[in-house]
């Protein structure tokens, strides 16, 4: 595989945070510890990054999105370090890699109508030549994620539901047709019924547009539903990786096994029979973040 | 209204611990009156764990709030009664009693664990002092007496005695949540209401909390109401589940019946939308459409716009929550109640006998 093809490559990425907040654990926290993996655009994939809070999974998302320069290691795109991209190359990266975040309430500016989310992107990336063309583009994108334009356009963020907001972010993604979607816990605040709709759209995007998704989640059952590959991360280290059907069905690492056994099953006849011992749950002081 | 033919986990000779009848909680909003909870009737038996499930905005947390009369303007209680029979006192209507009596009941008989309450611990007080505060405020014990009980209470939620001397920032999320549970049971209440107790916790911590809550019933005989949108939590923990949609109970039944033979199309959609690790990977459909607006509930059955079985009859007639004996659960003999014309008006719905 040539490193100059269309792929995001993480090479020994490490992120260390220092400060008074980590005094109790020696003044620094290694949030991401020599993480290496590759996301390819061709063939498109869905890769789930599964971990608990504080495992470093969101830090990886921030690093890939260019929001947090890692302490060491590189993230490359077409073989070039993304933190050295400038001008057109930087713009291309920003267009090719799109984010969907966890909180559908925090991402919208409450003072603007939701339409602005689309128009800003249209202007930034010069997607349309006229207002009419832009409007068509917006309408098509909304329909692609199962939203009726009349239901959401012209409204303020507080007037629409969390599920609708999260799907608007997907509509924006659908409009930009990026090669990569970095989705950081996008469904954790959605109800079960709406969650499935969202996941189905991601699956469709892969099918229809060939988009590759890095799906960051704490929920193993969601990762299982999406299929593809999975990486299990704990304390900044990627412990186990492979096909979902392999890792989540025959987990090898004790940590993955523990995660799976703690998962509540939607079946009242399959309740936990054994008791979880307190020692199994880390009662040590947990550092912030 | 209430069907006493059910045989639940606990004997019901003394009547249920709580009987909610026709509860209505409305909010005055700019766009008119928003009927967040619109005529809910439920009962909780002694030593029973009742789960309340529904999507966000369905009114499930508002029911919990109303039980403690914590509804504040612009919200108000529009109708109904909540009869509560504490172990050591006379039955009362929680919606009618005076403030002083209510103060006595709160925490001592009826404990509440609000959503995200683990983040409401006072950051500059040691855990033990926060226990003493609560116990003195609501109990009769002296500070010294209260202090002595703390290690034991922490032990009941599997926390070490030295946690008492710690500050909240020294505890993990799961430990804080267990401290909150220990506080809730400090005065041996008859009923504990927990609103989304496992949300925003890691899976193994979640499991610990579910186990701790189960212990409250199994070891101390308390009754619990678990409000959660996570159906898997209900499957692990509760005896009966009430499904709330658009401010109404649309189905209530034994947890086995709800998961094995859900009756209401909304419940069916909810159950089908849960991905399952290890199961066959097939496309799940979810429930399309959006939750209706509480200021303007749809006519007839409130679910009709999203329901795959809806007919004209559903658009015009509001279904009542009635027992459906044919779906009696084999496990407990509980008769589920469901608000759906498919079961109560099969003829009008054009359902043939063989369905």
Describe the structure concisely for a colleague.
Chain A is of the alpha/beta class and 289 residues long.
Overview of the molecule:
- The complex is a heterodimer of chains A (289) and B (355).
- Chain A has 289 residues and is an alpha/beta fold.
- Chain A has a single domain (7-262), classed as 3-Layer(aba) Sandwich (Rossmann fold), CATH 3.40.50.
- Helices cover 34% and strands 23% of the residues of chain A.
- In chain A, the strands form two sheets. In chain A, strands 6-7-8-3-9-10 form a six-stranded mixed sheet, sandwiched between helices.
- Mean pLDDT of chain A is 88; it is low at 280-289.
- Chain B is 30% helix and 21% strand.
- Chain B has an eight-stranded mixed sheet, sandwiched between helices. In chain B, strands 2-1-4-5 form a four-stranded antiparallel sheet.
- In chain B, helix 5 packs parallel to helix 6.
- Chain B is globular, with a radius of gyration of 21 Å.
- The two termini of chain B are 28 Å apart.
- At the A-B interface, helix 6, helix 7, helix 8 and helix 10 of A face helix 5, helix 6, helix 7, helix 8 and helix 9 of B.
